[in-house]
Design brief:
Helices cover 30% and strands 33% of the residues. It contains three helices and six strands, in the order E-E-E-H-E-E-H-H-E. The protein has 138 residues and is α+β, with helices and mostly antiparallel strands. It has helices spanning 44-67, 105-116, 119-124; strands at 6-12, 15-20, 26-30, 75-83, 89-100, 132-137. The strands form two sheets. Strands 1-2-3 form a three-stranded antiparallel β-sheet, with no helix packed on it. A three-stranded mixed β-sheet has the order 4-5-6, covered by helices on one side.
């Protein structure tokens, strides 16, 4: 039987405390202001947006390290758009990846392919609109 990866406890006031069991790292979530919360921390849907951007950069990093391409300083911005009909959900996650440095066309293509193959992107699939832009900052 697999062991749990994360343990989450409801703290009251629309907040949760999550613990990553292997590392002991903890974080707080809070409901967003537009859904009765204080917006004092990441909301659960913010974490989905964070997971998408972090995953894309991580998979790009794996490919970059394998080839010796510098990726330090690359960044990602994710614009989250919620929908309310028929149920409250994430409708759109617009991703902009900014990659500094001099990389040739082959490296850029490989890194773009890697980003689009991240497991979070694949999991969200057709359920969420996910336009992705790559900005190559030479």
């Amino acid at each position: 039987m697999n062991q749990p990866t994360i343990r989450i406890r409801y703290e009251g006031g629309l907040r949760t405390a999550a613990a990553h069991l292997r590392s002991g790292t903890t974080m707080i979530t809070d409901a967003p202001v537009d859904n009765q919360g204080q917006g004092a921390s990441f909301s659960p849907t913010d974490l989905v947006a964070t997971a998408l951007g972090s995953c894309m950069l991580t998979i790009m990093g794996i490919v970059a390290e394998r080839h010796g391409w510098p990726l330090e300083g690359a960044s990602c911005e994710v614009e989250k758009v919620m929908a309310a009909d028929p149920v409250r959900r994430i409708a759109r996650l617009a991703v902009t990846l900014r990659i500094p440095g001099q990389l040739d066309a082959q490296a850029r293509q490989a890194l773009e392919r890697a980003a689009m193959a991240c497991p979070v992107h694949a999991t969200l699939g057709s359920h969420v609109e996910m336009p992705v832009s790559f900005v190559w900052e030479d």
